[in-house]
Each structure stands twice: as C-alpha cells, then as structure tokens.
Amino acid sequence: MYQNCDAEDPAVELARTSTSAPSRNRFERRRAETRQAFVRAARQILAETGDTSASIQTIAERADLGFGSSYNHFESKTELFDAAVTDALEEFGKTFDEHLKGIDDSAQLVAAGFRLSARLVGSRPELMQVLRHRGLSHIHSDSGLAQRALRDLEVGVATGRFTITDPTVAVAALGGSLPALLELRFARPDVDGDEAASNLAEILLRMLGASWEDAHEVAQRPLPDLD
Amino acid sequence: MYQNCDAEDPAVELARTSTSAPSRNRFERRRAETRQAFVRAARQILAETGDTSASIQTIAERADLGFGSSYNHFESKTELFDAAVTDALEEFGKTFDEHLKGIDDSAQLVAAGFRLSARLVGSRPELMQVLRHRGLSHIHSDSGLAQRALRDLEVGVATGRFTITDPTVAVAALGGSLPALLELRFARPDVDGDEAASNLAEILLRMLGASWEDAHEVAQRPLPDLD
Questions:
Q1: Contact B136 A141 (CB under 8 A)
Q2: Total structural domains in chain A?
Q3: How far apart (Å, rounded) are the C-alpha atoms in residues B8 and A224?
Q4: Which terminus of chain A has a smaller tally of CB atoms within 10 A, N or C?
Q5: Is B122 exposed, middle or buried (0-12, 13-18, 19+ CB in 10 A)?
C-alpha cells in the first residue's frame, strides 16, 4: 500500500531517489576503489617480478586489503592479473591518444608510437614493464590496443600510405616488435633509446610499404613533447 | 708408499684408470640425467602454464625426483626455469641447423626460419610454447639464438642481400615477430599457419631491405621437409 502510494507521488519518488542514490553511489564508488586497488597492486607486482607467480595474499597485502575481499571482484588470480594487464593496456592507449592526437599520417602515427613508447620507459617504468612482460599475449586478442593498431593499418592502406595484403601478420610484427624494443630498453640501458626507437620505426615503415626515403624522414620528425 | 709404487708402474696406473673412470662416468652420467629430468619437467610446466609460478616441489614431482635433490643442480627456481628456457632455445637452434643446412641465401634463411617455426607449432608444441612465452626475454641476451640471428643478418648485409644500419634493432624486430607469430598460431587456430608465416616472412624481408618482388619470391620457395 505504502509503496503504491509512493509510486504515485512524484515528490516522494524524488525524495527516495535523492536519498538512496548517493548511498548507492558511495557503495559503488568504494567497490570500484577496492577493485582498482587490487588491480594497481597486481600491476606493480607484475612490473617488478615479470610474472604472475605472486599469490592473491601477496597482492592483497600490497593493496593493504583483506585477502577475502578479492573474491568480491575476481574469481581467480588469473582474472586479477588479466585485469591488471587490461588496465595497463588501456592506460597505454589513452597516453597515445593524448600525445598523438592531431597526427593524421598513418606512417607518422606508427613511428611516433614506437618512439613515444621508448621514452615512456623512463617516465612510466611500471606501465612499460607490464607491457614488456605481458603485451605480447594480448596482441591477437580483442584488446583495445590490437584493434587500434589494426585500424591505423587499415587507414594507412586506404590512404595509400601502406601496402600490405595481410593486416593480421602486420599487427603481429608491430605488436611483437614493441615489447622487443621495451626489452632492449630495459635489458640494455647502454643502447641509446631514442635512436633505437627511430631506427626500428624506420625499418618497420619499410616493412609496411613506405619508400626508404620516406620511412627515414618520417621516423626523424619532431616528436610531440611528453610533458 | 704403495701409492708411490703405483705411480711408477704404468700397468698399475692403467688398471686404476680403467676401473675408476667408468664409475666416475656413471656418477657424472646419472648426475646429468637428474639435471636433465628437472629441466625437462620445468619445460613441460612452462609450456602448459606459460609462467614460472610452479614451485620446485611441483617440478620435482613432475620429474619423479626428490625435492631436495634440485639443490644439487640449481640454486633457485629462477635458475631452474632459466635452464629450461636455455635448453629449449638450444633445441630450437639445433632444429634450425638440421633443417636449414645448405641454405646460403640469408634472405631465404630468415624466411625459412619463420615458416619452419610456424610448422613446429604442430609437431613440437611443447618446445614452441616455451618460445612463445619466454623467447622474448632472451632476444637481447648472449643466447645462441640472438647471436645466430645477428650473424645471419651480418652475412646478409655483407653479401648485399640486406640493407640495414642498426642490426640490434633488426634483431629486435625479428626476435619480437617470432613469438608474435607463435602467439598467433596458438591463439588463433582458425588462421592458416603456413600462409601467415609466409606473409610475415615477406614483409620482414622488405624490412631488411629486399625488393618487394624478391621478398615475395623468397617467402614462397619450397620449404625443406620437416620429417
């Protein structure tokens, strides 16, 4: 009865919405924060160890959260680490969007992407360690990054910038070369990172069908500032 | 006294050698077999799980050996897994030598290497899973495989087959593309593996400086039989 009454009274309805929504929002927000704390801790551990051998207990301790609460968010350790990699890939994609916006030339986008990644090793080491260790296993998934690379390649083919017949293997070559570049940056700090990234971008543009002169010129263009 | 006597008697010396050497050999052989059983078990587990989270206990159980005996051979789990990856890389290198011997053309060697690898996914899945998951972390090390790739590239440059100025980044691109191809083979069984490998080889040869026609022709040459 009371309920029916309420339902017909817009003022009561409004009052109920305005009191319950914030508390639901607060609950949802806290829930999201807890989930994100687990993800952040898993990312850190992944970056430090390079593998997924840490226990949920260890991740929970790092997040300063109770062990049991992880099961409100993740069914297994695998799911938690997958969420950590997805989170890193999304952050990486956003960083690209932010820094490379305004670049229309597909060739320049590819080159700038590699060169930017090499620089991020210095400024965002945790993020790039995750990509170094786990990026490869996501290049043929439906992750944002693989789709983005495929889209850029298709635009390049449509505009005549690239000449490739099999975009899937081109994505494989690009998606394998990126963690290989990160591996080089982390494992061989003696190698000049900017130069290596430009040189790699240049030969990858050749691979995609750019002329040698063109590939060289595009790979040397000024890079947007990272700061 | 007795010892001095012996030392001056070649017949006694010979007799001693001929009795002690086999027992030392037997000891060494058993020791090597035990080590190899640990390595083999670690390889299997690495291939199955894709990571190094298994405990030494688990590896020992798989090898049907006592947990403690691992410490006669490996100081840590990391050392054991490293030995497993090195073992796989060596087997991979030997398989290359075996199947690609007689090929002098550097471009054909690169193409055949990629195409052979794609086929080995079917016939040697355990070996190729290890390379899929762990190959990347060894491409800038002094491992046999990286050195081999560098040597092939340098021969290609010397003979005018390849035009690259920075062999280190070319090794990165090749060494990253190989696990990416394996990832594609394992993660996307719907994709034609032979065709993907040939297409990838073709664009990688372009990257190394081969003309498009040349790259296409080389990537389609008959492949040595695997059996």
A1: no
A2: 2
A3: 81
A4: C
A5: exposed
Q: How confident is the prediction along chain A (227 residues), in pLDDT tens digits per residue?
A: 333 333 333 444 444 445 567 777 998 999 999 999 999 999 999 999 988 888 999 999 999 998 888 888 999 998 999 999 999 998 998 998 899 988 999 999 999 999 999 999 999 999 999 999 988 888 777 667 788 888 889 999 999 999 999 999 999 999 999 999 999 999 999 999 999 999 999 999 999 999 999 999 999 999 887 76
Cβ of A184 within 8 Å of Cβ of B178? The answer is no
Mutate to test the interface with B, among A169, A174, A208, A211 (most CBs of B within 10 A): A169
Beta-carbon separation of B169 and A181 below 8 A:
yes
Residue B176: give the domain boundaries.
84-220
Query: What ipTM does the predicted assembly reach?
Result: 0.84
Dist CA A70 CA A9 (whole Å): 41
Domain boundary among B55, B74, B93: B74
| Residue A224 falls inside a structural domain | no
CA distances from B101 to A151, B85, B108 (A): 40, 24, 11
By CA distance, what is B215's nearest residue in A?
Answer: A207
Contact A203 B199 (CB under 8 A): no
Closest chain B C-alpha to A195 CA, distance in angstroms:
10
* Min distance A136 CA to chain B CA atoms (Å): 7
Residue A95 vs residues A38, A138, A191: alpha-carbon distances, Å? 22, 18, 24
pTM of the model as a whole:
0.85
